Structures are given as structure tokens and as C-alpha cells.
TrEMBL record:
It is found in: Cell membrane. Its EC number is 2.1.3.3. GO terms for cellular component: plasma membrane. It comes from the Bacteria. Gene3D superfamilies: MetI-like. One of its GO terms (molecular function) is ornithine carbamoyltransferase activity. GO terms for biological process: transmembrane transport. This is Ornithine carbamoyltransferase. The lineage of its organism: Bacteria, Pseudomonadati, Pseudomonadota, Alphaproteobacteria, Hyphomicrobiales. Its main location: membrane. Belongs to the binding-protein-dependent transport system permease family. CysTW subfamily. It is an enzyme of class 2 (transferase). It is a multi-pass membrane protein. Pfam families: BPD_transp_1.
Length: 259
């Protein structure tokens, strides 16, 4: 790699990650002033774990993320199978466009349209609407991950099982699903991450008692940043990082199995 390329890469990484590193460093600041270093301390993590409303919001985020990721995992896998296994069918283009539209549509538009839908059908906003909304925009991401695995899947094993008398359901659960399991798990983790750090859509579709952690952090930041927010943000970064590493490991395992 040339000197110019190394310099450009270093500057790009610094631009992306230097603010995050500063936030993490100041979460261990002993001072109440976030811009003044007062020595190393973990006191704000203790304050964070005694903050009842913030912990309640974190539990809401985890509940919504798990439920919405599970729904998106099932729907996204079914959608990928439909696109890969059934070739060209009437309405395929429209189906594909509708599936992937939430991935490129501005989150403000998605949140507003879902809000109007829930109001129109008389569904009270809360945990249920959050789960539906997050599953809606995460399904397309799962379909992309699972679809990529299906395109490289050797179908000879499925055909052999069918020739030996196995029905479609037995072929899927006995052959196809174990082969695509790493990609399904990676899609689940991706949907989990998308739900965990969403703010815009959740702001539209949440209701009383359904305040997520990003919403809670944003509302507190508007009144002024304190080291407790830095600690909460650091834990959120760590959680998302672990999920991303898990998804990367599963994706790598998928590639090794394919080889």
C-alpha cells in the first residue's frame, strides 16, 4: 500500500472513530463537566445503573429489538426463499421493490407513514407498534443477507433428499435451513442492531411506557450532556459492537461452510 493510501485510510478512520473514542474516554471522567478531565473514575457507571428510568428504557429497547429481529428474521428468510426458489413470477419486480424500499426510504417518511397507519386503524402506540415498525424496515436487510447465501447454495443436496422421498417441509428443515442457518443468524443480529440504535422511527411510533434507550438519551442530551450519558452511550456502543462482531463471525463461518 502506498504512502498516500495509508495516509488517506488513517485520516478516514480518525474522522470516523475519533469522536467515539473521545466519548468512551470521557465516560470514565471523574469530573461532572464533560469537557474537563478530572481523573479516571467509574463513578458514572454506578450512577447509570441506579438510574431507574434509563434502565427501564434499556429493557424496552432490548425487548423490542429481540421481538422485531425474530419477526424480521422469519419474514426476511421467507422473502429470500420466495425470490430465489420460484424464479420469475408475475409481480416479481413490484414484490422486490416493495421488499427493499424501506432500506432506501428516509426514516422520517417510514416513521410518518407507519404513524398514520397506526392512527388510521386505531392501534394504540406502544411496544407492539415499535416491534411492527422495526420489523418492517429490518425485513429487507435480512432478505439481502439470506438471499446472498441462497444464491451460492449447492441445491444438489436438496434435490437428492427430494428424490429419496422427502417432502418440501422435510427438505427445508432438514437440509436447507441448517445450510443457511449462519446467514439467518447474521440477519437476526443485523436486525437486532438496527432496532437497538433506532431513534427516528421510534420517535414516531412509540407511546407512553415505550420509551427506548436512544430516545431517553436524546431527550436528556437536549437538556445538557453529562458523564452519565457518556457511560450509557459507551455501553450502547459496546453492545452494538459485540453484535456486529457476532454477525461478522457468523458470516465468515457461512463462507467457510460454503467452501
Amino acid at each position: 500500500m502506498s504512502l498516500f493510501a495509508r495516509t488517506a485510510l488513517t485520516l478516514a478512520l480518525a474522522f470516523l472513530y475519533a469522536p467515539i473514542l473521545v466519548l468512551v474516554a470521557y465516560s470514565f471522567n471523574d469530573s461532572k463537566l464533560v469537557t474537563v478531565w478530572g481523573g479516571f473514575s467509574t463513578r458514572w457507571y454506578g450512577v447509570l445503573f441506579r438510574d431507574g428510568p434509563l434502565i427501564a428504557s434499556a429493557l424496552v429497547s432490548l425487548k423490542v429489538a429481540v421481538l422485531s429481529a425474530a419477526i424480521a428474521g422469519v419474514l426476511g428468510t421467507c422473502a429470500a426463499l420466495a425470490l430465489d426458489r420460484h424464479g420469475r413470477f408475475w409481480g416479481r419486480g413490484a414484490y422486490t421493490g416493495l421488499l427493499y424500499a424501506p432500506m432506501v426510504m428516509p426514516e422520517v417518511i417510514t416513521g410518518l407513514s407507519l404513524l398514520l397507519l397506526f392512527v388510521g386503524i386505531g392501534l394504540d402506540r406502544g411496544i407492539a407498534t415499535l416491534v411492527i415498525a422495526h420489523a418492517t424496515f429490518a425485513t429487507g436487510f435480512v432478505a439481502v443477507v439470506v438471499g446472498a447465501r441462497l444464491k451460492g447454495l449447492d441445491r444438489s443436496l436438496e434435490e437428492a433428499a427430494a428424490d429419496l422421498g422427502a417432502g418440501p417441509a422435510r427438505v427445508f428443515f432438514g437440509i436447507t435451513l441448517p445450510l443457511i442457518a449462519p446467514s439467518v443468524a447474521a440477519g437476526f443480529l443485523l436486525a437486532f442492531t438496527l432496532s437497538l440504535d433506532d431513534l427516528v422511527i421510534a420517535s414516531f411510533v412509540s407511546g407512553p411506557g415505550a420509551t427506548t434507550l436512544p430516545m431517553r438519551i436524546y431527550s436528556q442530551v437536549r437538556l445538557g450532556v453529562n458523564p452519565e450519558i457518556n457511560a450509557a452511550s459507551t455501553l450502547l456502543i459496546a453492545a452494538v459492537g459485540l453484535v456486529v462482531l457476532g454477525a461478522s463471525w457468523l458470516t465468515g463461518r457461512k463462507g467457510a461452510m460454503a467452501d
